[in-house]
Design a protein that fits this description.
Blueprint lengths: L1 H25 L6 H7 L3 H10 L1 H7 L6 H14 L3 E2 L2 H12 L3 H10 L18 E2 L2 E2 L1 E3 L2 E6 L2 E4 L2 H7 L2 H10 L3 E2 L10 H26 L1
Parallel strand pairs: 1-7
Antiparallel strand pairs: 2-3, 4-5, 5-6
């Protein structure tokens, strides 16, 4: 029984130390005794190549930004450009108010939600309404619009926006750098702490079992 418990303790210690050894092997902490002898002759010739390829290797070794860092940068950019809002209603109101005076915003909107087509689409686009101010919207003269007063009026961006649902408009606004809500909050990972707690509980149980065996014998 003692040998069995001792073997379990040794196995747990080995499992804890294994990630560090694996990291050392992957990270290039050193060569094994077998590979060091066979590769020592080519180190001098490879040193010149390594110095030449230093810029490329250094650029690859740069750590990629985390998701929280990406969200934080996007938030700061939106805040700087006046596209950060606390609520959806405020964001929608701000976008609509700036739409008339912002040519880039209008161009991006018209590109995403066109009303003119060289040929009538086989399926009616989802952003085209069925009616506008009581008038049926139809395809005619290369685009979607409505007939009123004996004339055909092509749908404009402002007309289209007034009939568009908020979900579709918000989806487009996010692609244009708009942010809704407060600044992103970093979430701490407790995986390492939980792992240590589990290992500690197992060790306590093993020690208690070992003591119990000693006492009962």
């Amino acid at each position: 029984m003692k040998r069995f418990l001792l073997g379990i303790v040794i196995a747990l210690c080995a499992s804890v130390m294994a990630p560090e050894e694996t990291w050392a092997r992957r990270g290039g902490g050193g060569f094994s005794s077998r590979s060091s002898g066979s590769r020592s002759s080519g180190r001098s010739s490879r040193s010149t190549r390594s110095t030449r390829s230093t810029p490329r290797s250094s650029s690859r070794s740069k750590a990629r930004p985390t998701k929280n860092q990406v969200k934080r940068r996007a938030y700061e950019k939106a805040k700087k450009s006046g596209k950060a809002y606390k609520t959806k209603s405020a964001a929608l109101k701000g976008y609509r108010s700036k739409f008339k005076s912002n040519p880039k915003s209008r161009a991006a909107f018209n590109k995403k939600f066109p009303t003119s087509y060289s040929k009538q689409p086989a399926k009616r686009p989802a952003h085209i309404p069925q009616s506008y101010q009581g008038n049926t919207v139809i395809y005619q003269n290369g685009g979607y619009g409505y007939s009123s007063g004996g004339a055909f009026h092509m749908m404009t961006g402002m007309m289209l926006m007034s009939t568009m649902n908020n979900a579709m408009l918000m989806s487009h606004m996010r692609t244009q750098g708009y942010h809704v809500g407060g600044p992103p909050v970093a979430r701490e990972s407790h995986a390492g702490t939980i792992f240590l707690i589990v290992i500690g509980c197992i060790l306590v149980i093993l020690v208690a079992g070992f003591v119990y065996v000693r006492v009962t014998q």
